[in-house]
Amino acid sequence: MSVAFAQSGNYVACGGMDNMCTVYDVNNRDSTGAAKIVRELLGYEGFLSSCRFLDDKTILTGSGDMKICIWDLEAGKKTIDIDQAHAGDVVSMSLSPDNNTFVTGSVDRTCKLWDLRDNTCKQIFFGHQADVNSVCYHPNGFAFATGSEDKTSRMYDIRSDQQVALYEPPNKTSGFTSCGLSFSGRFVLCGSDDHSVHIWDTMKNQHNGCLAGHENRITSLSVSTNGMAVTTCSWDQYVRVWG
């Protein structure tokens, strides 16, 4: 359900319904060429929904047991264990550009802003009417976008502590599973149950069309760091790269 690269490119972490986070060293491979496992982080009582490296030695996770954890990978131990971080499953998270804060989305219909410097929740954002399946920090670090089961995407401004935009598709028939922002932050992209990626122009607050081609639900979406491409995964068993 989740996969993440360390910023150095040396490690990959993943997890899901196995209720653990597995960390691989991509520079250390076995005789078959597969990356070797360096850590299996156990102790979750629900699925692993999100994982993000803070550095090569530290990883942040969110899970279906309503917990947020920070792990010391060298010791293989939790350094922070936030119980009841949300009133429901933690299903998504996004790190700020400066790595000082992160945002989480939950099935409790809220988003929360957390400060990594003292590991506390600073703000709670309301408005969604169903699960918040995806959150994505704006490149400027002052806002974040969401994708929700309520068939909307929203933009929240952190400084003003409020929703500043609502994005809806022309035919409001399917929920959004994933969201991303373009390199400049001008465009919001959301993967949908209707098999397509919806795009909005945040400057004009208008729907700019769809990327169509998948034949089933889009489960995840990622924008490349240089802003030149978007990758999507789907239940149709295909991964597509859009340029």
TrEMBL record:
Lineage: Eukaryota, Metazoa, Ecdysozoa, Arthropoda, Hexapoda
Superkingdom of the source species: Eukaryota
SUPFAM superfamilies (UniProt xref): WD40 repeat-like
Record keywords: Repeat, WD repeat
Organism per entry: Graphocephala atropunctata
Protein name: Uncharacterized protein
PROSITE patterns, per the entry: WD_REPEATS_1, WD_REPEATS_2, WD_REPEATS_REGION
Biological processes per GO annotation: signal transduction
Repeat region (WD), residues: 41-81, 83-124, 125-166, 211-243
UniProt cross-references to Pfam families, sorted A to Z: WD40_Gbeta
